[in-house]
Amino acid sequence: MKMSELSRRSGVAIPTIKYYLREGLLPAGHATASNQADYDADHLRRLRLVRALISFGGLSVTASREVLRAISEPLDLYHTLGVTHYALGAPVADTGASAGTGNPDAPGEDDDCAAEAAALVDRMGWSVGEESPGRAALAAGLRALRGVGADVGTDELLPYAELAAATARVDLDHLAGIEDRIDVAERALVMTVLLEPVLATLRRMAQEHEAALRYPSESKQPPRSPAPRAGTDTADRGARTGSHRAT
Amino acid sequence: MKMSELSRRSGVAIPTIKYYLREGLLPAGHATASNQADYDADHLRRLRLVRALISFGGLSVTASREVLRAISEPLDLYHTLGVTHYALGAPVADTGASAGTGNPDAPGEDDDCAAEAAALVDRMGWSVGEESPGRAALAAGLRALRGVGADVGTDELLPYAELAAATARVDLDHLAGIEDRIDVAERALVMTVLLEPVLATLRRMAQEHEAALRYPSESKQPPRSPAPRAGTDTADRGARTGSHRAT
Questions:
Q1: A–B: how many Cβ contacts below 8 A?
Q2: How many domains does chain A contain in total?
Q3: From A79, A126, A186, residue closest to B223, measured CB to CB
Q4: Residues on chain B touching A133 (C-beta within 8 angstroms)
Q5: Coil, strand or helix: which one is B92?
Q6: Is the dihedral of CA B53, B59, B65, B66 positive or negative?
Q7: Are residues A6 and A121 in the same domain?
Q8: Same domain membership, residue A123 and residue A36
Q9: What ipTM does the predicted assembly reach?
Q10: How far apart are CA A52 and CA A7, in angstroms?
Q11: Which intervals hold domain HTH merR-type (chains A, B) (predicted)?
């Protein structure tokens, strides 16, 4: 197919496709004539993956290129997952760490949090590499929680870690049936990046339900937005950007 | 304390504190003389919370102001959680939806995904308001997954929803012992925003462990970064921004 059809079928604008080609996120098309190139189903599939990583997964172009390069290497599932995690970095950029370091009220808390993270991995008996980005990310998360006075340590995290272990078993079950190695790598990436906001959403909905269960007499009316909304479709984006708000 | 001490103890630069004051994220100090204001422990605590929401939680200034205003209203825990969720919006901005809508290969998938999301809530027996942002966020997540060919529906999500329910019970247990209403609201906010990346990190570490368990013969060496790193501290940020990379 021509680039115009690739654009139409993917919903990605032509200038954006050209940008992805220049940035190496999408392999070049098959040259058919001077200034003409042909794209196939693999291009369409890759383009949709790039689009999902960037727009829904919130990855940068650089991180997307790195992770796509990583999953193209010939590795088994264990190493594919590892390389994917390394290329992705922490689930949230660790910008909170510098604020923590600059706080003289809590000297040495950086080391404490790294030790708490390591203690949790030990208590769970997890095989997690010393260089795994999860260790630093977990320490950064504990630091951010302590910075606001929420004293969350190994004991508090243990039940969450048990549930994470159960979640990972469900994840790996889904990968087990896939034969093609690139398919497995791509699915592992999709599962890690695109399922994360879905799981966060499920937790929030479950919190709403659990709060309604525990405080039945107080919850006759479902919670409502503090301000009138223009419409349900724009509500989420409005909360982030301040647009479409009646306030 | 003076603003200089507030800055020193919080690790937040004075121009940033002034910006938060102008934006209404931090209440004004107590006036002591012309051009002088005094700040107390509540200011310090609020400043640390704002810092954590923006730098670690990834919230915008607008979303932070909205959520802080929401938790200052006199509500019970059920409504406090609900208002917090509404003010936060979706866990990830739903920018993927427009790409999905523009895809003519999958007509009507928007409605399908909303129906799948509603079916999951019904199957779980969850009390979740019709206007809850979780419903739209879940539909957007399913849409993004389908866009890359991962056919995740109600059946696939059910085990994840069960684990989310168990996670929410742990969450609510942590809130149950707190007496002060503002403390509960603040903790609910911290738990929702700051624990999300921690839980995502735990899942990735558990995936690494589970993959090592299931593929033992292939995993003698722990996975490594595809490129040499400048150091563990900068590695995560490097993957996002492209800085500090040896490639």
A1: 473
A2: 2
A3: A79
A4: 235-236, 239
A5: coil
A6: negative
A7: no
A8: no
A9: 0.76
A10: 15
A11: 1-70
